[in-house]
Specification:
The complex is a heterodimer of chains A (456) and B (200). Chain A has 456 residues and is an alpha+beta fold. In chain A, 52% of the residues lie in helices and 19% in strands. Chain A folds into 3 domains: 146 residues, Serine Threonine Protein Phosphatase 5, Tetratricopeptide repeat, CATH 1.25.40; 43 residues; 205 residues, no CATH class. In chain A, the strands form 3 sheets. In chain A, strands 7-8-2-11 form a 4-stranded mixed sheet. Chain A has a 4-stranded antiparallel sheet with strand order 6-5-9-10, with no helix packed on it. In chain A, strands 3-4 form a two-stranded antiparallel sheet. Chain B has a domain of 123 residues: Rossmann fold (3-Layer(aba) Sandwich), CATH 3.40.50. In chain B, a hairpin with a 5-residue loop joins strand 4 and strand 5. In chain B, helix 2 packs parallel to helix 4. Classes of the chains: A alpha+beta (456), B alpha/beta (200). Chains A and B meet through strand 1, helix 6 and helix 8 of A and strand 1, strand 3 and strand 6 of B.
Chain lengths: 456, 200
């Protein structure tokens, strides 16, 4: 075999190594989401595990995040805890810069880097761990996750990332359930400030439940003046049971956290350019978000004769979109750098052998894929409700209604005997059967125009 | 010559790459200290247990009890809570404390509540099935004189790749007769950890 033949064989070998890994993440996830939406999370887990068998090590953190969430939905608390703990550790390791992966990202595609997760995902993994421990009845270990939320928030704050109010609120509820009023008050205060931060993507109208939580623990600490000021600021009635730590201690509490629908998909937008002078092809591929908003306009939690409307605690869809927008300048710069690297490789190969040049050009074009990896099994948003009830036997139900007040679903949450002073944490999830249509949705041309091609 | 050198170089490089890919297992002594990530580990658990037990046994409560009663005190380990940032296996720490106390030969140790259930079931079973000569009667358990309680807490100060992890173990020995605290022990561990700046 001549030198040209050997080089062509080597190029083919490289192509065989690179191209099979180029099936985009969002394409593979369709097989997981279909059974999940059909209400079969176990089949979704099997599909994910089948895909995970061939997954590269760099995709392992994301595989574990999705697997942990499916185990969570299957109420396999130990499995979810083990899987998400491993994911959290790998995310921390992947946050360290890799020279080799950076080089691969500017020569092959973005997906050659280990998945390090968006900042909100790095915090939410601890939120789900805390919830799994709470559902397993392991309050002390949920407390460890509350401290982990604090630790991750400190690290993210050093990188300019704003506070996550929902994570702080949950941490506060864990501390309060353990009777640690001072820690709970600090966490509730941070949650309040984060919801009110208008520049933050986490900002939302402050949930009235959080206002009452803050007043109650402030009063429990004996800070009566501060509690009164907060009551006046939030315009809360003086005689509400939830505001009185002594009266509320004689009741049982139920906290329901509802996971609504699915987080946005990241799909691929690509541009194929033919250079008429050289005859070469240049492809640029970048991700864009496809939100999957929920049709649920109102979620109502019923416990015996008591009922309460859930309040929005976190808008994950907005966080996902904002995370991609923030990445876009770097992604675009690397996509241009990659196009130049691949073009130069094609030129050199063409000089050696015309057929080799065509092969290198084709490999460059085919390997150019957008990094569409995102923790897309997260919910679109979190909603929360807290009820104070006299001790006794209760049956729980969650009613979901659309904007016209029509029932979308009624979810049974189980039956329990609640004792005075007890705080029971519940979780529920519902996915709109129509959510799969998002896969077929036409690209959001305006988002792509503004964020990908920077046309104002 | 150059070609031969290149070939040798390639073989060496190949060997190095292969060696880097292989999993290597090395047996090390259980007393050998190897900190991998800086989190609470078996060495911390063992060293803290040893030091705190040494301290508790050197304090006046022990000799006072022996003078007063003429026997060794019976101790039970109560709740030791993990209030740290990590999922610490408290059972391992409790086992280390129990081992050190029992092996000192200066105190008697009684079974913890979760262990007693199984022992009582066995005695109940013996009442029906064991011979009279070997049967162990109910109601003959040794009641504990003191209970050891405590917690493990931590403070983490982190900036960039560097962090200081500070652990504090607080243990209290309480007289079960009158709730008197007869000993308070404290052990602190501080670790400075520098994370890696680059991955391969």
């Amino acid at each position: 075999m001549g030198r040209g033949g050997r080089t062509r064989s080597a190029v083919l070998l490289v192509a065989l190594l690179i191209l099979p890994g180029c099936a985009a993440y969002h394409e593979r996830m369709q097989a997981v989401e279909a059974p999940l939406v059909a209400g079969e999370p176990r089949k979704a887990l099997q599909a994910l595990e089948a895909d995970g068998e061939n997954a590269a090590e760099r995709d392992l953190p994301l595989y574990l995040l999705n697997r942990g969430l499916l185990l969570f939905q299957l109420e396999d608390w130990d499995g979810a805890i083990q899987t998400l703990s491993q994911a959290a550790r790998l995310l921390e390791e992947a946050a360290v810069l890799s020279v080799g992966e950076q080089a691969a990202a500017v020569s092959v595609n973005e997906g050659r880097r280990s998945y390090a997760g968006a900042p909100y995902e790095r915090r939410l993994v601890h939120v789900f761990l805390a919830l799994a421990y709470l559902r397993a009845g392991r309050l002390d270990e949920a407390r460890v996750e509350a401290l982990q939320i604090d630790l991750v928030s400190q690290v993210l704050a050093q990188q300019g990332e704003p506070e996550d109010p929902f994570a702080r609120w949950l941490a506060g509820m864990i501390f309060e359930a353990l009777g640690e009023w001072d820690q709970a008050r600090v966490a509730y205060r941070k949650a309040l400030e984060a919801y009110e931060d208008r520049d933050s993507p986490y900002a939302l109208p402050v949930p009235p439940t959080l206002q009452r939580d803050l007043v109650r623990v402030t009063a429990a600490l004996g800070l009566d003046d501060e509690a009164r000021r907060l009551r006046e600021r939030f315009a809360l009635a003086d005689d509400a049971t939830e505001l009185d730590p002594r009266r509320s201690a004689r009741l049982a509490q139920v906290v329901l956290i509802y996971l609504d629908n699915l987080a946005p998909l990241w799909l691929e937008s690509s541009l194929l350019i033919h250079d008429p002078e050289s005859g070469r092809l240049v492809r640029i591929a970048l991700p864009y978000p496809v939100p999957r908003p929920s049709p649920v306009a109102r979620a109502e939690f019923h416990l015996g004769p008591h009922s309460v409307v859930l309040e929005k605690a976190e808008d994950v869809a907005r966080l996902s979109q904002q995370a991609l927008e923030r990445q876009m300048p770097k992604l675009l710069a690397r996509a241009i750098a990659r196009a130049l690297v691949k073009s130069e490789a094609t030129r050199k190969a063409h000089k050696e052998d015309a057929l080799l040049g065509v092969m290198v050009n084709l490999i460059g074009v085919l390997s150019e894929r957008a990094d569409t990896r995102t923790w897309q099994l997260l919910p679109d948003n979190f909603r929360l409700a807290r009820l104070f009830l006299p001790p006794g036997d209760y049956r729980g139900e969650l009613g979901l209604y659309d904007a016209r007040g029509r029932v979308l679903a009624r979810l049974s949450l189980g039956e329990w005997a609640l004792e005075a002073g007890e705080t029971r944490f519940l979780t529920a999830r519902w996915i709109d059967p129509g959510v799969l249509q998002a896969w077929e949705a036409a690209p959001d041309d305006e988002w792509i125009r503004i964020h990908v091609y920077h046309e104002d | 010559m150059t070609s031969a050198l290149r070939r040798i170089g390639s073989i060496l490089l190949f060997a190095v790459v292969l060696a880097a890919c292989a999993t290597r297992v090395e047996r090390i002594g259980v007393d050998e200290v190897r900190d991998l990530s800086g989190v609470w580990n078996d060495t911390d658990s063992r060293l803290v247990a040893e030091e705190m037990v040494r301290d508790v046994l050197s304090r006046p409560w022990l000799s006072e009890f022996q003078q007063r009663t003429g026997r060794r005190p019976a101790v039970i380990v109560g709740t030791i809570r993990n209030l740290s940032h990590e999922h610490i296996n408290v059972t391992t720490f409790i086992n280390d404390i129990e081992r050190e106390l029992i092996n000192s030969g200066r105190v008697d140790f009684v079974a913890a509540p979760h262990e007693r259930g199984e022992l009582r079931a066995e005695r109940k079973d013996q009442e029906l099935h064991a011979s009279e000569a070997t049967r162990k009667a109910m109601g003959q358990e040794l009641g504990a004189d003191f209970m050891l309680q405590g917690d493990i807490s931590s403070i983490i100060d982190r900036e960039g790749k560097r962090q200081v992890r500070y652990y504090q173990v607080d243990l209290t020995l309480i007289d079960l007769a009158d709730n008197r605290k007869v000993w308070i022990g404290q052990k602190k561990i501080k670790k400075f950890i520098t994370g890696k700046s680059l991955r391969p």
